[in-house]
Amino acid sequence: MKCALVTGGSRGIGRAICVKLAQMGYHVIVNYVSNEGEAIKTLQLIEEASSTGELLKFDVSDNAAVVAALEGWQEAHKDEFIEVLVNNAGIRKDNLLLWMEEDDWDKVMGIGMKGFYNVTRPLLQKMLVKKCGRIVNMASVSGLSGIAGQCNYSAAKGGMIAATKALAQEVARKKVTVNAVAPGFIRTDMVDGLNEQELTKTIPLNRFGEPEEVAELVGFLVSDKAGYITGQCISINGGLYS
Ligand SMILES: NC(=O)c1ccc[n+]([C@@H]2O[C@H](COP(=O)([O-])OP(=O)(O)OC[C@H]3O[C@@H](n4cnc5c(N)ncnc54)[C@H](OP(=O)(O)O)[C@@H]3O)[C@@H](O)[C@H]2O)c1
Q1: Interatomic CA distance for residues 241 and 203, integer angstroms
Q2: Which terminal CB of the chain, N or C, has fewer other CB atoms within 10 Å?
Q3: Which tens digit of pLDDT belongs to each residue from 44-64?
Q4: pTM of the entire structure?
């Protein structure tokens, strides 16, 4: 059984990635933090794609909870190992830095940056021993260009891109690849409330992207065909300058 873990797999981009990985034949572990109903819907879509999956609830920003959940999974699946990790969970809490509450800084960094550490570290050793692994980190255009009103989110995503490049160099000899994907505006719950009409005018391709389009890119990066791509951050943003 080929196993893949997608953090934040219950909705949006994460859900589309779960479905794509299911279509590629992976057993998909769907992480979520609170929205069990949506996570169950993702699981149904995985089964409709003729694959198998399971739910694994944990808060990626809580190191003890992540380690306990991953150790519990390994205990229950002694002969399996997670060969694909998609660090997708993320939130935004936008404000000008002048008005930004400390808690909004900490939450966005905790999920975006610390979450990368918490989930990746426990899974790395097996990938290195097996000389097989794919890690894809969900960054953002915000982490490349910086976006006013998103100092916390830009910092989390920019940090994630830098960590991607560093880790890729650490593990390349063991045939583990690490890449980041930087979407622009993708139609999910996260962009609810944004002025789509106005923002669309700034996008050369003149529309928001769809989660399935991001999932196709992630599917390629985890495939054998992408074996020579590592340490990269690949934009998928309709032509936004980043
Ligand atoms: N949409 C965009 O335009 C866009 C653009 C660039 C980058 N991104 C990035 O793409 C990723 C997915 O975004 P999205 O638009 O699909 O977001 P979304 O629709 O808001 O979904 C967020 C997902 O993250 C999960 N999540 C949130 N906090 C978590 C935590 N502490 N622990 C575990 N899971 C957690 C949610 O789980 P629950 O369902 O349980 O809440 C949900 O599955 C994020 O990293 C985001 O920053 C999105």
Answers
A1: 9
A2: N
A3: 999 999 999 999 999 999 999
A4: 0.98
**Residues 6 or more apart from 207 whose CB is under 8 A from it?**
200, 238
C-alpha to C-alpha distances, 44 to 49, 211, 216, 230, nearest whole angstrom = 9, 17, 20, 32
User: Does position 242 have pLDDT exceeding 80, yes or no?
Assistant: no
How far is residue 215 from each of residues 80, 92, 111, 142, 181, measured CA to CA in Å?
24, 20, 21, 19, 10
C-alpha closest to that of 190 among 5, 4, 15, 6: 15
Is 241 among the domain residues? no
Residues near ligand 1 with C-beta < 6 Å?
Answer: 7-8, 10-14, 31-35, 38, 59-61, 88-91, 111, 138, 140, 183, 185-186, 188-191
Closest-CA residue, ligand 1 atom 7, reads: 140
When the pLDDT of each residue in the chain is averaged and rounded to a whole number, the result is 97
**Distance, CA of 123 to CA of 116 (rounded, Å):** 11
User: Do the domain assignments include residue 144?
Assistant: yes
Domain count of the fold of the chain: 1
Active-site residue (options: 32, 153, 228, 241): 153
Q: Which domain holds residue 95?
A: 3-236
CA atoms within 13 A on the CB side of 123: 29
The enclosing domain of 166 has a CATH number of 3.40.50.720
Assess if residue 242 is contained within a domain. Answer: no
